[in-house]
Each structure stands twice: as C-alpha cells, then as structure tokens.
Amino acid sequence: MGALSVLERMRGLREDRGAPAGVRAPQAATDDADGPFALSVRNLRTVYELGHATVQAVREVSFDLRPTERLGVVGESGSGKSALALSILGLIEPPGRVGGGEVLLNGRNIVGLSERQLSSIRGREIALILQDPMSALDPVKTIGAQLHEAIAVHNPQLRRSALRRRAAELLREVDIPQAERRLDDYPHQYSGGMRQRVAIAMAIANNPSVLIADEPTTALDVTTQAQVLGLLDRLVDEHRAAVILITHNLGIVSEFCDSVSVMYAGRLVESSSCEHIFLGATHPYSEALLRCVPNPERLAEGPLPAIPGFPPDLSALPGGCTFAPRCSVGRELAVCHEQTPVPELVEGPSGSAIVECHFARERAARGSR
Amino acid sequence: MTGVIARRLLGSLGAIFGASIIAFVIMRVLPGNPARLILGPLAPPSTVHSLYRQLGLDRPIYVQYWRYITQFFQGQWGYSYSDGAPVRTLIGERLPATIELALFAFLITMLASIVLALLVTYRRRPIADRIVRAIAYIGFGTPPFFVSLILLIVFFSTLKILPGPEGRLGAQVTPPATVTHLYTIDALIAGEPGKFLEAVEHLVLPGVALGMANFAFLVRLLRANLLEVSREPFITVVRGKGLRRWTAFRRHALPNASLPTLTAGGLVLGEFLAGSVLVEKVFNWPGVGSLVYEAILKQDFSIVQTFILLSAVMFVLVNLGVDLLYAVIDPRVRVRSVVTA
Amino acid sequence: MSSGLLTFAPPDGAIREVPPLGDGSRVRRALAAVLGDRRLAVPTLVLVAIVLFAIIAPLAWGVGPDTQNLLASLKAPSLAHPMGTDQLGRDIFARVAEGARISLLDGTLIAVIGAVIGGVIGLLAGTTAGASDAVLMRVMDAILAFPPLILAMAVTVGLGVGLKTAAIGATLVLIPWYARLVRSEAIRIRSLPFIEAAHAIGASRRRIIARHVVPHVMPTLAIQIAAGFAYAVLLLAGLSFLGLGAQIPTPEWGAMITDGLTYSLTGQWWVSVFPGVALLVTVTAASMLSDRLRDVLDPRSSGLRS
C-alpha cells in the first residue's frame, strides 16, 4: 500500500510531536514533560469466565496515548484487540469482566465507575467506531434519530430543531450529499461506506478527546476504504482527537498512525513508532506479520510466507513466551518456553521500542531484517 | 410496499380458499349424508330428506361447493336444529364475550411475557433463566382446561379470592349499558368502576388459563430474540454514544426484538379467538366456545360446522393483519430499499 | 410456529437440524449421550416410568377401571385408593393407569403415522421441483390455515365422534407439520456438495434419495416424533374433554377431567386433578425429551447456549 512513501510523509509530520508515547515504560507517571496524556492504560486485565474455562482476553496491558496521537493496534483475529477496545470503554459484557488495572482518561481512572458515570463519559470524552457498518446502526431507527440520540444524550437541553440542525451539520461534515433529506432515511437505504460515515459522525458528535476505531474499514471495499480513511484522517485532525485504530491491516497503520502496538495473545508484544516497526521490527512476531504483507518489490522472493501454527488458546496459554511455539527464533529454545519475557526498552536504528522478547536487545541492535 | 401487501392478500385468499375446500370435504363430502349428520340419528327420514334437498346435496359436487362457500360468505349460516334460531344470531350474541376474553388474555400474555423476558435477559441471572425454561415446558404441557381447573381449585375453592365459574359477571350484577358489548369497556364508559372491577375479576382466571400455553411460547421466543439483538454491534455502538445499559436496551434492543415477536403475537390472538372453546366450558363463559360445546353435546352440527370454517377464516385474517402491521412498522419492508453508493 | 394446544410446534418454535444417525457408532454415541447427560436422563427416565406404569399397574392393581362401588364414591385418596374414587366409586388410580395405556398407545400411533405420511409428502415435495411440490405444499398450507384443535374437531364432526376419529383428526394436524420439516431438510440436503458429487458420478435420483437424503432426514424426523407424540396426547385429551374423542366411560385422561369437573370444584379435587397431572407429566417429559435431544445431538445448537 505504498507504505514507504507514506512513511516519508509522516516522518515530517511527527517531528513536532516528539517520540511516540507508546515508547515510555509502563510504570511512567500519567504525564511527562510534554504534558498530560489523553489516555493511559495501566495493567489492564480482562477475562471471560465461561464456566469450564477462563479466557484471558487482555493480559496486563499498559500503554499511553498523547493528545492527537494516533496509535495503531495490530494483531491476528483473536489476539484480544477488540476486547481491549471494549475494556477501555467499560463495555465488556458478562460473562466477561475487567479483572484489574486502570484506564486513566484525561487523568481520571474510569475503571470501576458506575454505569451512570461511565455513560456520561462515553460518547463525550471517548467514542467508539465499530467494524461492521451493516450491523453498527439500529435497523429500525432513522439515521437522523440515531444522530439525535448521540447529540442529545450529552446535551439534554437542546431542542428538537437544534438537534436536527446539528445532525444535518454532522452529516455534511462526513460528506453525505443532501444531508437534510437523508436524515429521515433508514440504515438499509445507505450504502456500506455511507453507513460507516454516519458511524464516524456519531462518534465525533461531541468532540471526544479519544476515539477508538475497531477495524473501521475492514468490511468496506478498497476504494471506499480509502475514502473513509481519508475522512477519518481529516476529522480527527479538525477535532484534535487522539485515536486508537484497531486493525489487522498494516497498510492502514502505515498510512494513518504515528505509533503502533502489536498485540499477541492478549499482550502488547511490541510498541514503537511506525518507522521502527516498518523499517525494522524487533519482535519476531512483528517481523513475521510484516512479512505477510504483500510487497511488489519482494515478488521475486516467491509466495507470501505465512506464520506457522495458530494463535494460542487464550484459556490455556503456554508457559514462557506465548509466541514461542510459532517463533522462528525461539521455537527450539528452552528459555523461550520456560521464561516469560519482560517488556524491555530497546533502541534500534530507527527509534526506540518496548519489546517483550528474550532477544529484544540483540535483535534491535542488528536492526532485524 | 404495495407489492408486499398484494402478495400477502393473495396468500391469505389462497389459504381461505384451501381451508374452505378442506372444511367442505371433511364435513360435507366425507360424512356421506350430511343431512343425517346435522339432524342426528333420531330425526325421521322425511326430515332428513327435506334437509338433503334443502342443502342441495342432490346437485353436482361443484355446485354444492359453490353454494356452500357463497352462503358462508353471505352470512347465511343456516339454523340451529335444536332451537331453530339462525346460527348467525347465536354466534353474534356470543361473540363479544369471546372477544373480550381473547383480548384480555392477549393483553396479559403479552405484558407478562415481555416483562419476564426482559427480566431474564437484562439481569442475566442463570437461575431466572432456568425458571423461564421450566415455565416454558410446563406451560406447553398443560392443556388450558387443566390450567383452568387448577386455577379454580386454588383461587376459588380454596383461597376464595376470585369468583368461580359463573360467567362474565356475578349473578346479582346487571351488565353495564351496552356500547361495545365488552363489559369492561362499557363499564368504564358508563362510569361504573364497581362493575369494571367485577368484570376484570371474572376475566382474570379464564384469561390466565387461556394465555398460559402461549405465554410459555412467547416468553421463550422473546427471550431468544432479545439475547440475539442485545449481542448486535449496534447495541455496543449505542452504549458507546453514552446511553446507559437500560436505555440502550429499552430504546434499541426491545423494539428490534419485538418485531419478530409481533408475528407470533398475531398467531396467539388468532388462537385465543378460536381456542377459547376449551376454557369457556370450565368457566361457564357465555362465549362462542360454550355455544360450540353445547352444540356438540346436542349434536347441533350446523353451529359446529359454521364455527369451524369461521375460525379458519379469522385465524387467516388475524395473521394477515399482523403481516400487514409488520410491513407498516418494519422500515426494511415499508421503505423501498434504495442503496446509493 | 406457535405452541400450546392450539398450534403445533416444539416449545421454542425452532426447528434445528441434527447430524445423521447413519452408522452404529453414532447410535451408540447417542445412547451414551442420553444416559450420561442429566438433561436427557431426566425426561427419559420419567417417560420410561410412565410406560412401565401403563404396562404394570393395570395388571397388578386389584381393582378394574370400570368397577363401580357407589358405597365408596368420591372418597379422598387413601391407601386403598391412592388417587381416591370418583362419583361412581371407581378407583381413579386404576383409571389413570388405564388412561396411560390409551394415551401412550394412541399418541405413539398418531405421531408415527403422521411422521410417515408427512415424511413421504415432504420427501416428495422436497425432491421433486415444480408443480407437484407446489400442489402438495398448497394443500399443506390449507390444512395449516385451521387452528389445530379446530381441524381435529372438524374431522370428528365429519366422520363421527369417537376416539378413532379423534386420532385421525390429530394425525391430520401433524401431517403438514412433518411434511414441511422434511421438505426443508430434503431441500437443504439436496443442495449439499456431496449430493452434487453423487449426481456427477451418475447416481440415479431414486438412489440419491434412498441412500443420501432419507438417512439424513431420519434423525430430525425421529426426534420430532417425540414432539408429535406430546402434541397428539394433548390434542386427544382436548377433544375428549370436549366430548368429541373418548366417550364415557372410557378412562381417557381428558374425558376423566370433564367427567369430574363439577366435583373437583366442590372439594373433591382428586377426581380431575390426578388425570390432569398424569397428562401434564407425560406431555412435558416428551416435549422436553425432543427439545433436549435436538440440543444434544446437534453440536451447533449446544455448547455456549444462553
């Protein structure tokens, strides 16, 4: 997806933002020299208790997000990405629950708040965009009604006419033609791309400082994907929101994000700037993921490699490094199967990263690939 | 949407046509001599023969069918052979009582199943879920007449808190001034709260008895629908907007889950109208059901025959009504689907 | 899709598919599942108990179902009469046991005959396309236009009141239901890749139906026989209650309930309650069994069910 050219462009962008926030050690304070974080997640743990088994969907995850920073979270399906998003918002439903940790939103821990307090934060300070535009809108309510709802829930004083005006404004903002007229349409009268625009409009309706987008473009075709991503890019800039973009598409991360965290089996195994990952991922899993991206320049090397094996069963995790059974480096090594690696801050040729790998240092030093 | 309506109308017409043929075959062709059937074994042959002629049974079968169907839809339902009154008058007199009972049963069944299904799905207590499953099984396995009996034994014979099998009102109470023929509503119109309560008290047990089996069915259906809808991404999205769990549930999960339940609700209402025959007898409810029961005892089959085809027609019509209502309510059917890029 | 005495469907209104019970290992596994699974064991054991009761009790019990003793009429349950006596002094226990024979036998017959006729119709409709399918299904739709109890009523009125005609009426109610079930199953199976493969290697249509479609439809149908049985018992009792089925003095449960209605409301509750409880237990056990068999034999519907 033209990852390199985009990177060139982003390198310029990022200069005034300093080092990516994700690189800070997990035990860092809620703010640093650059000012407070929009979102700090500390040791967040989410489990699903299914009677016969306990699934550990998110295992002690920590990261920081600066205001207006864009963090990409990548990983295979089942790695706990979506559970992480829902955990941050306090939307994990039984039989799942957040088993510990903190989510500091603009400095305030929101884990354990009442439904009442949480609902006043959701949509106003932190908003959510989901993957599937077909099922993300209530099929029996008009688009207008659903936009009204998003606005009114945090602005109870607004009258109907004002709500309608604001809803139309939002639709125009996401480039829906004939916005006023289309307010009275139902979701099934919108195309997939338009529905996803509506979902974005609802998410930005109250100027949240953090936006969590879970696979926002996955279900769309490539052209629409690019348009929606472009729109999101513009709006996030205008509204000065920080974004967590959850995706399995590295191309989108390279286009859209400043920093990236690679998730595997409920852990963030590598967090760094985009350059670091794309120019030389340190963790063997990140490296393997990158190899799976089609690249015209490497066509000659033969068919795309796949990562052997399957992601581990989150209810019966192997001891040691959870990636070891599939790892090109540690598959045969006792240390990888016996000891759990700790997060380490490493310096590579293109920036620093936090990596959970017994060989992080030496791999970073040689710049991996 | 007109296409949808036309299709439903046509389907219903077809079903009524088919049902009329089946009723005709079962009750006019198979018995051999329907006149004997209608008049009973004791009637003298001359009477049987004159009815045979009167029914046109000496004519070709398609002529008979045509006569049968046109007379039915013109409301010429013949005469009761036990007391000579027109069947139409007899059924007309008894219909309001049955309608009132069916509507009441429908109301409490719907309310109870919605409340219970909400409780189970919203609170997510496994124990409540198990109770609902038990109710569903037992409600299915209990015939309405047995529920009636148990209710009467408990609330009338033993606890003495509700009236016994004495029909729509106590013996000393005169019906309210007639407007709609439904005593509860007429009592309200006449401004007689005492009579209203009296009428409701008499409705409670037969209403519950009539509703039990369908309550069991509806609560299970609604529970399954609610669980399915509450797992839809749009519920998460709505909560992500800042709606509280209950508000999201009420505004979004419930309407979506109710749509498919509506169709079932229509079936249920149709069944109540036809099926009160099992309950009315126990409660001496002066409705069509008791009329039919009495007619069976007296072998007065012109009433029974009319009732049978009439139930099928009503059953089809109520379901048609629900289908049309569904088409009006559900925007995916109502609004022509325009997908623009 | 509704339930209760008036429309026929399993309690949750859903018809699920089950994998075929073709070979011996599957049958063994199914048996092991029935006996090892508490959800299945309970209704199975209850039904077995009822069957044993129906076989043994009338033989072992000293009093016949029709033996009248006017000196001992309307006696409350005691050791001599565990379920009391009715207005004619007949022993209710003996009558309930005799009634169990009637209900079990007739219910099974109705369900099996209904399943066979409905199954054949469904198979014909599901494996032939076009006109015959359309005609068969329109006829089934016309039957379904009647509330079930009313249809069964029509049959007894047309053919003459009695237990036999009531059974014919109940069978007629079940036929379209089984026909629809089998038709949709047959259509689904016909579109599976292995059937297309069989076509491709030149297997004849009759052979495909006999060797592939029928074995796959059978387990679904078999499980639904339990549901049909429950419904048939209920329907027969309803017709007898109305005086259209079993006639006095036949100790059919529904007829016994009508018979004792007046006495039951004036203190002698046992006259109608015991036959009613027998009816309730039988129908509930059978519908529970069919429902849970479907859950257990179909892995897609079990597991994380909530």
Give your account of this protein's structure.
- The complex is a heterotrimer of chains A (369), B (341) and C (306).
- Chain A is an alpha/beta fold and 369 residues long.
- Chain A has three domains: 3-140 and 208-280, Rossmann fold, CATH 3.40.50.300; 141-207, no CATH class; 285-366, no CATH class.
- Chain A is built from 13 helices and 14 strands.
- In chain A, the strands form three sheets. An eight-stranded mixed β-sheet of chain A has the order 8-9-10-5-11-12-14-13, with helices on both faces.
- The radius of gyration of chain A is 21 Å and the shape is globular.
- In chain A, 50% of the residues are buried.
- The model of chain A is unreliable at 1-33 (pLDDT under 50).
- Chain B folds into two domains: 2-86, no CATH class; 93-297, Orthogonal Bundle (MetI-like fold), CATH 1.10.3720.10.
- In chain B, 76% of the residues lie in helices and 0% in strands.
- Chain B contains 15 helices and no strands.
- The two termini of chain B are 23 Å apart.
- In chain B, 48% of the residues are buried.
- In chain C, helix 1 (24-36) packs across helix 2 (38-60), helix 3 (92-127) packs parallel to helix 6 (163-190) and helix 8 (205-241) runs parallel beside helix 9 (253-265).
- Chain C starts with 23 loop residues before the first helix and ends in a 9-residue tail after the last helix.
- Chain C has a single domain (26-53, 93-297), classed as MetI-like fold.
- Chain C has helices at 24-36, 38-60, 92-127, 131-144, 148-159, 163-190, 193-200, 205-241, 253-265, 270-297.
- Chain C is an all-alpha fold.
- The model of chain C is unreliable at 1-22 and 299-306 (pLDDT under 50).
- The longest helix of chain C is centred in the last third of the chain and has 37 residues, at 205-241.
- Chain C is elongated and about 80 Å long.
- Classes of the chains: A alpha/beta (369), B mainly alpha (341), C mainly alpha (306).
- At the B-C interface, helix 1, helix 6, helix 7, helix 9 and helix 11 of B face helix 4, helix 5, helix 8, helix 9 and helix 10 of C.
| Main beta sheet strand tally, sense and closure of chain C | none
Distance between the termini of chain C: 21 Å
Helix content of chain B: over 70%
CATH architecture name of chain C: Orthogonal Bundle
Q: Rg of chain C to the nearest angstrom?
A: 22 Å
Count of discrete domains of chain C: 1
What structural class is derived from the secondary structure elements of chain C? mainly alpha
Largest sheet of chain B: none
- How do the SSEs of chain C run, as a string of H and E? HHHHHHHHHH
